[in-house]
Amino acid sequence: MTCAGPTTVGPLPEDVDEDAIEATYENGILTVRLPVVVDAAVTGTEIEIES
């Protein structure tokens, strides 16, 4: 793959997992995936159990 167009550079958001970034170029379409690091404290769900 060659790049003959303009280049854009910018900072990534802090919650992006830099080691898991993926990019594909297919049929003239560039797809870039920036997965976010999930904080377990934020995604946790508390379930009340009755005994």
Question: Distance N terminus to C terminus?
Answer: 62 Å
Specify Rg, calculated over alpha carbons: 18 Å
Q: Strand order, main sheet: write it out.
A: 1-2
Overall shape: elongated
Structural classification:
mainly beta
| Number of DSSP-assigned strands | 2
Number of separate helices: 1
Measured as a percent range, the helix fraction is under 10%
Stretches where pLDDT falls below 50 for ≥5 residues? Answer: none
Sheet with the most strands, sense and barrel status: 2 strands, antiparallel
**Mean pLDDT score, rounded?**
83
The secondary-structure element order is EEH
- The fraction of residues assigned to DSSP E strands is 15-25%
Structural description of this entry:
The structure is a single chain. The protein has 51 residues and is mainly β. It has a domain at 12-44. 8% of the residues lie in helices and 20% in strands. It contains one helix and two strands. It has one helix at 40-43; strands at 22-26, 29-33. A two-stranded antiparallel sheet has the order 1-2. A hairpin with a 2-residue loop joins strand 1 and strand 2 (29-33). The longest helix is centred in the C-terminal third of the chain and has 4 residues, at 40-43. The mean pLDDT is 83.
SSE layout and pairings?
Layout: E1 22-26, E2 29-33, H1 40-43
Antiparallel strand pairs: 1-2
Keywords:
single chain; 51 residues; mainly beta; two-stranded antiparallel sheet; 1 helix; 8% helix
In short:
This protein has a domain at about 10-45. About 10% of the residues lie in helices and about 20% in strands. The chain is built from one helix and two strands, in the order E-E-H.
